[in-house]
Amino acid sequence: MPLPAIRERPLTLASTITTQEGRGVARTQRSAARTAASAGETVGQRLARLRRERGLTQAELAGRLGIAQPIVSDYERGELRLHGQLIVRLTEILGVSADELLGLTPTPAAGPQVQRRLVRRLRAIDRLPRRDQQALFRTIDAFLKSAGGG
């Protein structure tokens, strides 16, 4: 079942949070210092960065979410706000916590940048029949051996 999209203006880091404490109301402002978000990085930008770090295209992420690719683009550009059910799915797909996705805690430093083309090809190889995979691995091993890399 496709997830509904909510069109609203994105919140800023300086938005005011109001909490009820005893008899009075305490007002605090979230600052960039309290959040571990990169300076100026929006939720949409963070979503795009996390997606790219995992070697996913917008179309691949959209397919996993059961939505159209232009909707993913809208989320990444900040045209649409993420809603609860979508945040849960994104955390499962991207392998991060909701706090990391929303910028409340830092995401662990990514290791060496993996080439997206390589990741897509590895996924395609993983979908091949086992016999074809073994033949491909023999070819790769022979190439690496002749090139002095293995």
Fold and architecture overview:
The chain is mainly α and 150 residues long. The chain has 2 domains: 1-107, lambda repressor-like DNA-binding domains (434 Repressor (Amino-terminal Domain)), CATH 1.10.260.40; 114-150, no CATH class. 49% of the residues lie in helices and 8% in strands. It has helices spanning 43-53, 58-65, 69-77, 84-94, 98-102, 116-127, 130-146; strands at residues 16-21, 24-29. It has a two-stranded antiparallel ribbon with strand order 1-2. Helix 1 crosses helix 3 (69-77). The longest helix is centred in the last third of the chain and has 17 residues, at 130-146. The radius of gyration is 21 Å and the shape is elongated. The model is unreliable at 6-37 (pLDDT under 50).
Provide tags for this entry.
two-stranded antiparallel ribbon, mainly alpha, 434 Repressor (Amino-terminal Domain), 150 residues
Structural class: mainly alpha
**CATH domain class name of the largest domain:** Mainly Alpha
The main β sheet shows up as: 2 strands, antiparallel
Q: Return the domain count.
A: 2
Task: State Rg.
Answer: 21 Å
What are the low-pLDDT stretches, counting only 5+ consecutive residues below 50? 6-37
Number of helices: 7
Named CATH topology of the largest domain: 434 Repressor (Amino-terminal Domain)
Strand content: 5-15%
Strand elements, count? 2
Looking at the overall shape, the CATH architecture of the largest domain is: Orthogonal Bundle
The CATH superfamily title of the largest domain: lambda repressor-like DNA-binding domains
